[in-house]
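Propose amino acids for all 463 sites.
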């Protein structure tokens, strides 16, 4: 719930060409304990920014001297730490899309009342505090290495925490480069097996040696087998075995793996003595195993055994909010290795956020590494990024005006109502006060979006 003491020292910049709106915002926020610098001229506001640090800026999207988008870009070049709320009276894709591509996700829609203004500002500053805490601890995290602030990433971290000590197989699905092995390592690290080995296996490279590599072999089992081996399973006893690209396992080996999963028993190649191992099995694939089951390329019984629980990753292009935290995270790693600290300019980060990443997080990491190695100094500029990636930007697929507007409005509704439910902590009376909505309309909207009041009851700081 809103606490004025939490924002007593917050400094807010207001930029709008309408004096009446500027006066209303100035009066309302000053009354609630904020320090406010109000301007109707964006050029004068930019001069003010050069001499003072602001926690938050409220920026009108349409101004005669300079658009809100242009102002925000210039503001971030001066102060990347300033959180920005865009003020607009037209919530359509033409206005919202360029903002989202710049990483601007906070909006205040005209007309607005005091409650809507105060809670929008509070929510934006709350988000800023959470993000700063995340970035500050990114290199020191011990609970999870799965980096990001998007809803899908937070959901995956919650799944990791809940599955870590269940000691059941987990199947991790998703495109290449989305962090499937990171998830598997996090599950192991947070489990009771973390004192023992985590052994990753790339099933795609096992080929005809899959059986002996997995189960080991006895001395003399075949030509060249001069000594016995334990295999991956025997070597991982007490720990965790991670089958990456499990869909590439030969069908005959799949049957033997199924027996091991069921009984914990197996035979080494060329030996009749029964072996036992206590191993947790995690698996991952970028293929559709259910379709492979239908065509006989993957055993259905093994699929059901491996999928006791399923985690599905999201492509990076569908969770743009994670790109900036990942940029900071990787630059921190690269800088630590060279005993230096990297910084990145706002326009350089904006280009990386706008790009498409078909190779997902792996591609972003490799690109950032190349950029950091080629950068002229410790602050990575737009020129440094362009030297490596060129002028790439995300390719847009333009749908009809009606569909685009519906998509933008649904995204806004979900974001606004999530913040409202979080700040109200499940209190209907408080949620209605914040939103200014009628009770029936409020219930209809959260039902359409699959949200529930009870999910936010007495859960502090949930967004």
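Proposal:
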């Amino acid at each position: 719930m809103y606490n004025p003491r939490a924002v007593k020292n917050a400094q807010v910049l207001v930029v709008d060409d309408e004096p009446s709106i500027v006066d209303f915002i100035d009066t309302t926020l000053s009354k609630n304990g904020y320090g406010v610098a109000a301007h109707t001229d964006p050029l004068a506001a930019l001069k003010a920014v050069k001499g003072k640090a602001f926690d938050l800026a409220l920026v009108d999207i349409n101004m005669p001297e300079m658009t809100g988008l242009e102002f925000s870009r210039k503001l971030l070049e001066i102060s990347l730490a300033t959180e920005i709320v865009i003020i607009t009276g037209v919530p359509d894709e033409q206005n919202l899309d360029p903002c989202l591509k710049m990483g601007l996700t906070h909006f205040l829609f005209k007309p607005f009342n005091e409650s809507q203004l105060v809670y929008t500002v509070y929510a934006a500053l709350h988000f800023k505090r959470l993000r700063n805490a995340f970035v500050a601890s990114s290199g020191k995290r011990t609970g999870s290495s799965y980096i990001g602030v998007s809803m899908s990433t937070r959901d995956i971290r919650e799944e990791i925490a809940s599955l870590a000590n269940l000691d059941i197989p987990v199947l991790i699905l998703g495109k290449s480069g989305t962090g499937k092995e990171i998830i598997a390592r996090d599950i192991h690290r947070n489990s009771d097996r973390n004192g023992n080995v985590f052994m990753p296996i790339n099933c795609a490279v096992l080929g005809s040696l899959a059986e002996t590599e997995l189960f080991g072999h006895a001395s003399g089992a075949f030509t060249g087998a001069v000594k016995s081996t334990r295999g991956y399973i025997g070597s991982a006893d007490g720990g965790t075995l991670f089958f990456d690209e499990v869909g590439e396992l030969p069908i005959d080996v799949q049957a033997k793996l199924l027996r091991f999963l069921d009984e914990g028993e197996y035979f080494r190649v060329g030996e009749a003595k029964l072996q036992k191992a206590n191993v947790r099995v995690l698996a991952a694939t970028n293929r559709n195993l259910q379709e492979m089951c239908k065509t006989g390329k993957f055993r259905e019984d093994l699929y059901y055994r491996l999928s006791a629980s399923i985690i599905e990753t999201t492509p990076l292009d569908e969770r743009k909010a994670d790109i900036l935290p990942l940029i900071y995270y990787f630059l921190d790693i690269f800088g630590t290795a060279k005993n230096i600290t990297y910084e990145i300019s706002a326009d350089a980060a904006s280009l990386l956020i706008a790009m498409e990443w078909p190779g997902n997080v792996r591609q972003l990491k490799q690109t950032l590494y190349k950029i950091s190695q080629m950068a002229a100094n410790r602050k990575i500029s737009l020129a440094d990024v362009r030297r490596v990636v060129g002028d790439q930007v995300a390719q847009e697929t333009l749908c009809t005006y009606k569909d685009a507007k519906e998509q933008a409005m649904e995204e806004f509704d979900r974001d606004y109502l999530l913040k409202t439910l979080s700040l109200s902590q499940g209190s209907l009376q408080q949620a209605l006060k914040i939103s200014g909505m009628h009770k029936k309309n409020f219930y209809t909207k959260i039902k359409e979006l699959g949200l529930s009041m009870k999910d936010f009851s007495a859960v502090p700081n949930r967004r």
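The chain has 19 helices and 14 strands. The first helix runs from residue 19 to 31.
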